[in-house]
Amino acid sequence: MKKLKSTVLFIIVTVFCVFCQGCFLPYKYKGERVDLYTVAVNNIFKASGYISNGEVLFDPIIEIIEEDRYGRVMFYYYEGCGYYDKEHMYESAYFNDSYTILVMQKKTDSYVYFYEDYCYESYKIEDKKFLKDGVFDYTKSNSSELKELNDWNKEIHEEKCTKKPLTTRNKGKLNVSEETFENIISNYAKNTGYKGDDHIYRYDIYNTSDTYGRELYYVWGVGRDVYGEGVSPTSKTQYYEFAIIFNPDGSYTEDTFIIELQDTINCKNQIFSFKQLNQWNEPYIFN
Question: Would you say 125 and 74 are in contact if contact means Cβ atoms under 8 Å apart?
Answer without folding.
Answer: no
